[in-house]
Design goal:
Layout: H1 7-21, E1 28-31, H2 38-51, E2 54-57, H3 60-65, H4 69-77, E3 81-83, H5 89-99
Parallel strand pairs: 1-2, 1-3
Helix pairs in contact: 1-2
InterPro entries: ANL_N_sf (IPR042099)
Signal peptide: 1-20
Keywords: Signal
């Protein structure tokens, strides 16, 4: 069985995520969450569509084979936001740019 969410609740939740994450139109988001449930659905699909955000989804199978693949996607697509199970990823990107200046050229 599933959960029913009203249109108003959906829009309100997406607007709250937009304000909390400071999303802007045209940004690029790298999503490593499952797009069919939980935060992957809210951030990776619904909020992205509402804000016209370009979303690159990295499937779990790819992440399992190559854990750094999300970093490659951020670099290739000039990503400004990432969505993952750990909210430390943004800090990892900031730290890695200081250690590896070629990452953000």
């Amino acid at each position: 069985m599933g959960v029913a969410v009203s249109k108003i609740a959906l829009l309100t939740h997406c607007q709250a995520l937009t304000q909390a994450c400071n999303y802007c139109e045209g940004e690029t988001l790298v999503n490593v969450l499952d797009c069919k449930k939980d935060m992957g659905l809210w951030h990776g699909v619904l909020t992205s569509v509402m804000n016209r955000i370009h979303t690159i989804t990295v499937p779990y199978a790819v992440m399992k084979a190559c854990p750094m693949s999300w970093v490659q996607r951020v670099h290739i697509h000039k990503g400004k936001a990432t969505v993952s199970y750990s909210f430390c990823i943004e800090n990892c990107i900031d730290t890695s740019t200081h250690l590896h200046p070629k990452l953000h050229t």
